[in-house]
Amino acid sequence: MNSFTYTKEFTVDAALKAADDEKAMFLAGGTNIIDLWKYNLTHPEKLIDINDIAALNTIEVLENNGVRLGALVKNAATAYDPLIEKWYPLLSKAILAGASAQIRNMATDGGNLLQRTRCYYFYDPDVPCNKRIPGSGCPAIEGCNRIHAVLGASEQCIAVFPSDMCVALAALEAVVNVTGPDGKRSIAFADFHRLPGDTPHLDNNLQQGEIITSIDLPPNHYSKHYAYLKLRDRHSYAFALVSVAAAFEMHGNTISKARIALGGVAHKPWRVAEAEDLLKGKKAASENFALAADRILAGAAGRGDNDFKIPLAKRAIIRACEMALNPETQIPGAGPSI
Ligand code: SF4
To answer: Where in the chain is the domain with CATH 3.30.43.10?
Structure first.
């Protein structure tokens, strides 16, 4: 039996004050933390329920015409918000490709960023795992690694980050706003999650005691040409083997701006700026998408079971880019088999 205290706080300041030691943990939607707790992977001694902090449960338009998502807005509420559907349909589509309707109704936007890998070994306390117990080893490298990373992995960990929403947020260049004991700061989305390196136990750059307050979406012109393509073992309630968020600004048939992010292939959403630059000023044609895919996948390496992800990712990138040219043909929340 693990004993813990439970408190509910109604302001960010009160929540920060309550989280005064490293055994404290914030509770929002609970869709991952409760799993982790049941699996005996986390042991908070102080649980601080932040669900009733009303200031973090709003979606608002910013002065620069971007949109701010409060950290406690539910994933479903975000996906179906008229502003998001109209200005950031890529984000709506990615959210609706993830989890189940029930989970999307509970999970929060801030919590989505903090979910942990679904590596089977991570959830099995009877085997070593460098993410769970640093220095204990990584059985996935020589073991079952069908779902694991082909980009940005290390000899310490080859886990992937499981979110769909975050792949779209990476492509949209979102900014994560946090508040902590040392005040407020904003983190570019590309810098929020970490690669495993020698510290695979750290998923992101959030510091002890910090709380995500909101996620800013910069204004953009991607609402006409976008796609989220998710490839998985079954059509719903499964994590991505490979996913692609693609968005273009177009001038006629010429790409003036491209954004491409991958999910299911690395410890964080994977974006390669050079590949996006390569498409700038080019015709929207499959051969150019293939060149971009090759650049994105440069250095990709499988570990056996997951070798198939590399050619699959190339085809998925090309297909997602083709789909982005004509978004109205896409099936909500799903993608074709390729
Ligand atoms: Fe643990 Fe990472 Fe290896 Fe999975 S891939 S067993 S999470 S160290």
So the answer is: 5-49
Ligand 1 pocket test, candidate residues 118, 138, 305, most atoms within 8 A of CB: 138
For residue 24, what is the enclosing H or E element? strand 24-27
Percent of the chain with pLDDT over 90: 93
Q: Which residue stretches of the chain are H helix?
A: 12-18, 33-38, 75-79, 82-87, 89-96, 101-106, 109-114, 165-171, 189-192, 273-279, 286-296, 309-324
> Per DSSP, which regions of 128-167 are E strands?
none
Q: Are 280 and 260 in contact (CB under 8 A)?
A: no
Amino acid identity at 151: L
CB within 6 Å of ligand 1 — which residues?
A: 117, 119, 121-122, 129-131, 138-140, 148, 157-159, 200
Q: Where in the chain is the domain with CATH 3.30.390.50?
A: 226-329
Which atom of ligand 1 is the closest one to the Cα of 132? Answer: 1
Per the model's pLDDT, the better-predicted residue between 338 and 253 turns out to be 253
Nearest CA to ligand 1 atom 1: 129
- The tokens describing 153, both together, are 């992995």
Q: What's the whole-number mean pLDDT along residues 199-225?
A: 97
Query: How close is the Cα of 34 to the center of ligand 1, in Å?
Result: 20
pLDDT of residue 216 exceeding 80: yes
The CATH architecture of the domain made up of 226-329 is 2-Layer Sandwich (3.30)
* Confidence check: pLDDT of 235 > 90: no
Candidates 3.30.43.10, 3.40.50.11810, 3.40.50.1820, 3.40.50.1100; correct CATH number of 5-49? 3.30.43.10
Weakest mean pLDDT among 27-31, 95-99, 221-225, 234-238: 234-238
236 band by pLDDT with thresholds 50, 70 and 90: confident
Rounded to the nearest whole angstrom, what is the distance from the C-alpha of residue 276 to the centroid of ligand 1? Answer: 30
Amino acid, res. 272 = V
